[in-house]
Amino acid sequence: MNGYDQLIDDLRSDYRPQREWGTGRGVLLVIGHFFVGVAGGTWLLSTLYGITAGLVTAYVLGGLGGIVHLMFLGRPEIAFKMMRNVRTSWVSRGFVGLSMFLLGGGVYLAILLLSLSGPWDGIKMFAQTVAMLGTFTIIGYMGFAYTASKAIPYWHSPLHPALYIAYAVRGGVAALLVIAAATGTTVDVSLLQLWITSSVLATLFFVFEIQGAWTSGNIAAKWSARDVLSGRLAMTFYGGTLAIGLLVPVLLLISSAERPPVIMALIGIASAAGDFFMKLTTVKAGVYLPLVLPSRRRPAMS
Amino acid sequence: MRLGMVIDLKRCMGCHGCQMSCKAEHGTPPGIFFARLIKREEGHYPTARQILLPVLCNHCSDAPCVEVCPTGASHYAEHGIVDIDPELCVGCRSCMMACPYNNRYFNSDQRNYFGEAGPTPYEVARSARHRESVVMKCDFCKDRRAEGKDPACVANCAAKGRFFGDLDDPTSIVSKLIKDRSGFTLHPEAGTNPNVYYLAP
After folding, report:
1. Class for the domain spanning B3-199
2. Is A154 on the interface with B (CB under 8 A)?
3. Domains along chain A?
4. Does residue A8 sit at the B interface (CB-CB below 8 Å)?
5. What is the spatial distance between Cα A127 and Cα A272, in angstroms, rounded to a whole number?
6. What is the pTM for the complete model shown?
7. CA-to-CA distance for A238 and A233, rounded, in angstroms?
8. Is the previous residue joined to B46 through a cis bond, with omega within 30 degrees of 0?
9. Which of B186, B167, B194 is nearest to B62 (CA)?
10. Which of A143, A183, A237, A278 is least crowded, fewest Cβ atoms below 10 Å from its Cβ?
């Protein structure tokens, strides 16, 4: 955006969508959050189901997510300074969590893949614990980072963290479905049940969030909900989040009772694509709280 | 000591003097205004009226931008002023999402007013000092205050509608105005305890 357009935009007193996250280079942040979310869910489920290929995939996705996050930053060369404010900043906590995930996960995977044992068992367990703590942090921090954004009423919702956690689990299942198809292993039926459960939960959280914004949110939250349902983001929402991310997987799931690997892979890919579009829609739907005089002006001091 | 500002909306005539003097003082890049004047219309004919609302960083006592900053670049400086250390800012822009007053700017790249003609000597002298890829905002004119002067927007307000002083001192002009004329803040529901107050139009 050039300086003149930016000025005109900033002199608006009403509808003003945020432009820093999700637009231009800001898309990198959404991609980073998508990779990191899927990485967290995949690591968690791969640990539970004992799938080594899943752990490797999660680690690679986590690394990619970290790189894309760094590419988004204005000054990535001092990114390590983001560890300084863990006390109050969710972005800082996310950075520490991802670092723990990559460090702990790297050591754990190295020991696992090299089949080291004996004195390495203790280190392996410690590394796994560090990686798991990092996993829980990266699954949770994104939603909280958005909720901490007081300027964007649509994100400033207690449902946002729950939504991102549900989507991380859904992303993890999607990755494991693709891995199962690629490695020719049979998909555990409980994995499909988990996909259905996480999809239902994510959809419910999303509906509640939109409903809350529409019925009891302030004007900026209503603008965001309008943008998603019938405005500038409707195409991405209906086409990407609903059609590709929900409708296609459900149709594939009910179309084949035998569930061949290729169908499982398609379900996984469509589901993951839907997750990305959901995150893109949510981030781009952020509209700043308008600057207006309060209708009832209370004296600030007595 | 807690420095703060009072803006008398009854005196504001929408001349944009605050915006321009701030721009001249800080030499901010194109599109970046630490102080802005927002105009809007309220009501319907025949009772419609124009609302003029000059805005700037509210230097909140409970600033959400300070809370969310991962590096501590956004911090409380002396006298309750919220400042940004450009050497620490990593450019994540989470502070911009946290500020309910939308008064932070990301200086994405070096821009100039005349495009391909390149920066003018004035721009070289004034704008080039700003670090790129970091967030910028009002600092209540740190350099002017060091010389014992009021912030540029206060000194240059043609209608004498801006006042600057110590909010902790009950005898200061700002404290008196807030008390006598029921000064109020923007978005009190955000719980940020701003230090920029307004007097009703």
Report:
1. alpha beta
2. no
3. 14-284 (1.20.1630.10)
4. no
5. 28
6. 0.91
7. 9
8. yes
9. B194
10. A183
